[in-house]
Amino acid sequence: MIVGVPKEIKEQENRVAMTPAGVRTLVGGGNTVLIQKSAGVGSGITDQMYKDAGAKIVPTLEAVYKKSEMVMKVKEPLPSEYKLFRKGLVLFTYLHLAANEKLTRELMKTGVTAVAYETIQTANGLLPLLMPMSEVAGRMSVQLGAHFLEARHGGRGILLSGMAGVPPADVTIIGGGVVGYSAAKVAVGLGAQVGILDNNIQRLRELDEIMHGRVITIMSTPESIERMARFSDLVIGSVLVAGARAPKLLTEDMVKKMKPGSVIVDVAIDQGGCIETSSLTTHTNPTFIKHGVVHYCVGNMPGAVPRTATLALTNSTLPYAQMLADKGFDKAIAQDLPLAKGVNVHDGKVTHPGVAQAFGMKSEPICAWD
C-alpha cells in the first residue's frame, strides 16, 4: 500500500503522524511511504531522517493525497483539504466527528473511508490510540491550570501547591478515565487538594486504591459537580463517551457560582466539550474569561509538546497502520474487531453509532457493536 503522511496545517499543530521508526517498519513490509516535505520539522524530525528510513519525500499536501491509498494524519482535515478527498481513499487520523457535522457530511459525499484513532476499541473497552494523547493532555491540563491561575493571566493568583501556613489549591477533575487519572497524578504530585468525580463506583474504588487515598473520590451527580466546582480553584473537564459528543456536565449556572479568577481546562473540547460555557480556542489565543472564570479550551493540547506526543502516538498507531497497509482495508477490518470499530464513515455511510446519533442520522455499522 502507498501510505502518505502530510504536514499538519491546523494552527500550532507540530505533531506528525509517523516517525522514522514507523516508516522503517512499513517499508520493511513492502509498503511505500510518502512524507510531505518538512512534515516532521516541528517534532524534531528532518526529511533526511525520513529518507534514511526508506520514505520518499513529496513537495506538497496535494501530492500526498493524490498519490496515496491511505493518508495518515494527527488531526482532522480542515476545509482546505476537503477538495483533496476522493472515493476509495482511506483516512486514518483523529477525527472527533461527533463534534464536526460539516466534515462528516463531506466524508460521506466524497466516499472517503474514515478510520478514527479515537474510536478503535478493544474487547475490554480500552481506547488504545486515544490513551497516549489522553495521558499527555491530562498531565498538561494541570500544568496549564497552574499557569493560568497566575494573576497576570486573569487567575486568582494562587500557587497550586500552597506552602507552609498557606493551603494548596483545590482541584476538581470531572471524569476518572485516562485523562482524569493522569491529571490527578500530576496535581497530587504538585501538592494540590484533589477531588475526582465519576459516575462509575467501581472506577472510583480503583482510583482510591491506586492513589492510596491521596484524592477525594466522589460519585458524580449534578449536585456534587456544582458543590465541588463552587469551591474549586481549578476544574478539569475530562469526560469521554467514545465516538459521541461529550455531555455538558458543568452547566453555565454552575460556572456562574465559581470563584472569580478560578480556571477551567476543558480537555473534552475535541468532542464538543463537557462544560457548557466552553468554546474552542487555539494555542495562539488559548483562553477567554466568562463569568469571571478563565477558560482554556484548546482542541489540540498535545500539539504544544510535539516531540513527546509524536513518539507516543506512533507507538500506538503503528500496529494498526501496519495491519491496514499489509492486509488492505477489507481484510484488516474483517480480522480485527477493535480496528473495525474505528471505522466512522465508509462508502458514503456513517458506520459509528455515536457519530450517527450526534446528527440524527441512521447508523450502518460495519461491525457488531455491543
Query: Runs with pLDDT <50, length 5+?
Result: none
Structural class: alpha/beta
CATH class of the largest domain: Alpha Beta
Q: Kindly report the name of the CATH homologous superfamily of the largest domain.
A: NAD(P)-binding Rossmann-like Domain
Helix content: 25-40%
Please list the strands of the largest sheet in the order they lie side by side: 3-2-1-4-5-6-14-15
Instruction: Please name the CATH architecture of the largest domain.
Output: 3-Layer(aba) Sandwich
Can you count the helices?
13
What is the global morphology? globular
Q: What letter string, H or E per element, gives the SSE order?
A: EHEHEHEEHEHEHEHEHEHEEEHHHEEH
What is the CATH fold-level name of the largest domain?
A: Rossmann fold
Q: Could you tell me the radius of gyration in angstroms?
A: 21 Å
Strand composition percent: 15-25%
Calculate the terminal CA-CA distance, rounded to whole Å.
32 Å
Whole-number count of domains: 2
Structure summary:
By secondary structure, this protein is of the alpha/beta class. The protein has helices at 20-28, 47-53, 61-67, 101-110, 131-148, 178-189, 201-210, 222-230, 252-256, 306-327, 329-335, 337-340, 353-358; strands at residues 2-5, 32-36, 56-58, 70-72, 90-93, 113-116, 170-174, 193-198, 216-219, 234-237, 263-266, 287-290, 293-296, 343-346, 349-350.
